[in-house]
Amino acid sequence: MHITFLLHNAFAVGGTTRTTFNLAAALAERHQVHVTSVFRDRAHPRLEPPPGVRITALVDRRATSPDSTDARGRRAGRHFPHGDSRHHQYHRLAEDRLREWFATCSTDVVISTRAGLNVMLARFGPTSALRIAQEHLVHDALRHSLRRAMRRWYPALDAVVTMTRADAAAYRTGLGLRRPAIRALPNSVPVPGHPVPRRTGNVVMAAGRLTRVKRYDLLIDAFTRIGPEREGWQLHIYGSGPVRRYLETEIERRAMGGHIRLMGQATPLAPKWDTASVAAVTSAQESFGMTLVEAMAHGVPVVSTDCPHGPREIIRDGTDGRLVPRDDVPALSTALAQLMADGALREAMGRNARERAESCFTPDPVARRYETLFDELRHARPPGTPRPVTHHPPRVTPPLPVLRATAGITVRGLRRRLRR
């Protein structure tokens, strides 16, 4: 089977790129797998490409590329939905290349990986292929205009995949569509090949883009309450993003520069987990929680806020990590302090965490669940079966004589006459 993933930018670092590469690598052991990136801005991807997986791009944004002088790159697009946060990047050139690729690609399955691309796949995707949309944002985070586009075009898809069961239920209720099928399939992370090291270091680690939704200020507040009491312990936060300066100010204001460090972006991140004894996640919401599973795969117990939607479906509170109420800083401090103080508890939870990651969230089991979905969808829609037509009913305009005859009357009167 030929499987193609469609990414916004496979040459950049991000959670969607990481999990796509993980899944692509597992599927490539049994199938022909291709990754198509709408954009490229460097010669080689920042993340190690999956072995045996070909990566191509549709628009080259490097200054030396002929695409940089194409006039279509300065004209606004017409089809990519405005509700997607990357809308401003989809100029006429990107849309044209994307539609040309849809019209000419030869593949059995297309899996697109962000909401705007999912709409484009539904509208213009190859009719001969299974069209599957991954949703990496929780339903409640979608803009209303994007939800309207989804309700209009998504019936032409074969399936929508969310990262958690809770979000699958939210999409079913929120979109209110009878089709396509909406399934929950988790992201995956590879388990390191080496044994879990003993957690002898005194590091609480957090990782992710430095944005407000990650609420690292809450983590800094919680660690400030207990860090100085735990001699030698430090909080290391990996990542880059728009709130870095704000977080630096918060650390300085609390005089915690000797205990809390902003480590910057680390690629690859995996080796850093071997230096951590506890992982911390304080997000206001998570569509899945790649950081959670990555930490668990390295045998690191996680303390996480019980936010929608991912953590509750990943962590078993008290067994392989701790869940605390989303806005409860004292509870977060208490959970961190418990693990920081008890090495035996850290070791036990770390072993349980790795076992859970291996059984539920490694690439091969997740890839096999995707293969089961492909088989079900092909059985439900054999080759040649027409797709549903998605459109808005045409607006009916009364003939000119009627308009003339009704000139000057009220709207209520016009409606009454038209009903006769």
Structure characterization notes:
- With 420 residues, this protein is α/β, with parallel strands linked by helices.
- It folds into 2 domains: 2-188 and 365-380, 3-Layer(aba) Sandwich (Rossmann fold), CATH 3.40.50; 203-361, Rossmann fold.
- 38% of the residues lie in helices and 16% in strands.
- The protein contains 15 helices and 13 strands.
- It has helices at residues 15-27, 92-104, 115-124, 144-153, 165-175, 216-226, 244-253, 270-273, 290-297, 311-314, 329-341, 343-360, 363-380, 400-405, 411-419, and strands at 2-7, 32-40, 54-60, 109-112, 130-135, 159-162, 181-184, 203-207, 234-238, 260-264, 278-281, 302-305, 321-324.
- The strands form 2 sheets. It has a 7-stranded parallel sheet with strand order 3-2-1-4-5-6-7. Strands 10-9-8-11-12-13 form a 6-stranded parallel sheet, sandwiched between helices.
- Helix 5 (165-175) links the parallel strand 6 and strand 7 (181-184).
- Helix 6 packs across helix 11 (329-341) and helix 9 (290-297) packs across helix 12 (343-360).
Give a brief outline of the structure.
This protein is an alpha/beta fold and 420 residues long.
Key descriptive features of the protein:
420 residues; Rossmann fold; 15 helices; 2 domains; 6-stranded parallel sheet; alpha/beta; 7-stranded parallel sheet
